[in-house]
Amino acid sequence: MIKPDGVQRKLVGEVIKRIEKRGLDIEKLKLVLLEKEMAERHYAQHKGRPFFDGLIDYVISGPVVTMVISGENAIAVVRKMMGATDPVQADPGTIRGDFALDISENIVHGSDSKESAEREISLFFGEEI
């Protein structure tokens, strides 16, 4: 997912370009304004943590681009391309290392496992894989 700050800062094309140049395929893509309930379901694992409400407010603050990306080792490759969650720790050359300004607005989200990817694809695209 390209988060609201990535869309607002006009980085959608740059993120997609990096994914495609890496040899991965974008199977599905959708620009959407998340409703609060969907955002809460997406980030349910963080419920109860001090940053949860701010995270929800942020992710519903503007449009996001949701994608289904496939290819060999797609999850691991995309997570490496994104860089560390905290942009201060993200390596140059990664999306967050090159573009993110702080930990709460860090341009992108990527599934951390096959199970998370399946849940998120079902949530955002309404289908099982």
Written account of the structure:
By secondary structure, the protein is of the alpha+beta class. The protein has one domain: Alpha-Beta Plaits (2-Layer Sandwich), CATH 3.30.70. The protein has 7 helices and 2 strands; from the N terminus they run ααβααβααα. The chain has helices spanning 4-8, 12-21, 36-42, 52-59, 74-82, 95-99, 114-125; strands at 25-32, 64-70. A two-stranded antiparallel ribbon has the order 1-2. It is globular and about 35 Å long. The mean pLDDT is 95.
How many separate domains?
A: 1
SSE series: HHEHHEHHH
CATH homologous superfamily grouping: Nucleoside diphosphate kinase-like domain
CATH architecture: 2-Layer Sandwich
N-to-C CA distance:
18 Å
Q: Please tell me how large the radius of gyration is.
A: 14 Å
Helix content: 40-55%
